[in-house]
Amino acid sequence: MLDSVNFEIKEKAKHVAENVVRPLASEHDRKQEYPWKVKEALAESGLLKTWIPKEYGGNGLGSLNLCLVVEELSRACGGVGVMFAVNALGSYPIILGGREEQKQKWLPEIANGERLISFALSEKMAGSNASDLKTLISKNDDEYVINGDKKWNTNGGVAHYYSVFGVTNPSQVGKPSAISAVVVEKGTDGFELGKEEDKMGIRCVPVRELYFRDCAVPKWNLLGDSEGKGFKIAMETLDHARPGVAAQALGCAQGAFEYASRFASRRRQFGQPIQNHQSIGFLLADMSTRIEAARQLVYESARMIDAADKDPSLKAKANKMAAQGKLFATDTAMWVTTEAVQIFGGYGFMKDYPVEKYMRDAKITQIYEGTNQIQRLVVSRHVAREATSLKFLDSFIPTIDQWIPEELLNEVKK
Question: Is residue 369 among the annotated active site residues?
Answer without folding.
Answer: yes
